[in-house]
Amino acid sequence: MHFQSAGKLRRAEKGKMDKNTKRTTIYDLATLAGASPSAVSSILNGTWKKRRIGQKLAERVIRLAEEQGYAVNVQASLLRRERSNIVGMIVPKYDNRYFGKIAEQFEQVAREHDLFPVITCTQRDPELEFEAAKELVSYQAECVISTGATDPDRISAFCRASGVQSINLDLPGSDAPSVISDNYTAARDLTDLILDRCEKDLGWNGPLKFVGGRLTDHNTAARLEGFLAAQRARGISVPDTYIMASGYSAEKAAGALADFAPDGPSGLFVNSTISLEGVVRWHSELASGADWVRYGCFDWDPFGSFLPGNVGMVEQDVTTMLNTAFTLVGTQTESKERILIPCILRAF
Asked: With left for phi above 0 and alpha for psi between -120 and 50, is residue 261 left, alpha or beta?
């Protein structure tokens, strides 16, 4: 008898605990609010105005949802509006001028469109990118802009399944519209500029070396194609060993050139300002031959004009890229086109 009583007591306590910790449902809220479950659902998902549900009922349901812990505060506050007005951006890096400029101008342009910008940096990690996209969607972002994402199609597929718009920036995808620089044309023009200066300053006509980036990356591949096309047009053959696309880091760029000590004229196409740091380090440590080197860089930094041997840089038109992307925000287009934005060639 004693053990039976103890067992009943434990079961009663467990039942009481289960009741106290049971998650509140829409049906619970409907009972408390004196409304139908479908009306509560419409209020919580922000479509209540379309169903002509009254403001007072909507406010009562939202208040009850907060009191019952149905949603975290930030989500509940978003439900008070029919739209969240949040636009999210995923960026790979903050530590160079290009992505820093994108992040800064993104905030400005979003506010000009009466949208609230949220930015997260993912360090070129595809899993971090996807987790960031899921978090942005969970906070009811109306659009997710993936900038330089390594797997943009995975993000786009998730966003579509969640009813959220997605746009690619800088690197293209095949499952959503993409706004990117015209990498091929800009690289071809920069290659011509470097070759012209090599011929003018050094009496030398190539071939140039290509330093930095990853061949699996769309932008690197497009720039390499433009680099090779410009030299083919001049009858210049580029050896495979001259393609040094071992990554974007400064260390890898410097390492790729470690065994190269020019004993005559030479020229380099540098594939990013991150790689440029390594090239400048290599160039500054040359025991001799530094005056024989001419190079140009795809990407822009105003300090680049002061670097010895640098003859020009490509500036990607961030302002036009973002303005173009924001013409797509909020539209119902199913387009998956790639929109190419011309770059600006800066000659020194």
From this structure: beta
| CA torsion angle 156 157 158 160 (round to 10) | 80
Domain spanning 183-318, CATH class:
alpha beta
pLDDT of residue 17: 40
CATH topology of domain 86-176: Rossmann fold (3.40.50)
Largest CA distance in the chain: 106
Task: Answer with the residue of higher pLDDT: 108 or 40.
Answer: 108
Round to whole Å and give the CA distance between 309 and 208: 14
Residues 6+ apart with CB under 8 A from 141: 84, 86, 87, 88, 118, 164
The whole-angstrom separation of Cα 169 and Cα 315 is 16
pLDDT in tens, 180-231: 999 999 999 999 999 999 999 999 999 999 999 999 999 999 999 999 999 9
Instruction: Express each pLDDT in 224-250 by its tens digit.
Output: 999 999 999 999 999 999 999 998 899
How do the domains of the chain map onto residue ranges? Answer: 2-79, 86-176, 183-318
- Same fold for the pair 86-176 and 183-318: yes
What is the rounded CA–CA span in Å between residue 115 and residue 84?
9
| Contact call for residues 87 and 142 (beta carbons, < 8 A) | yes
Return the structure tokens found at 305.
């004009």
pLDDT of res. 195: 98
- 234 neighbors 207 (Cβ within 8 angstroms): no
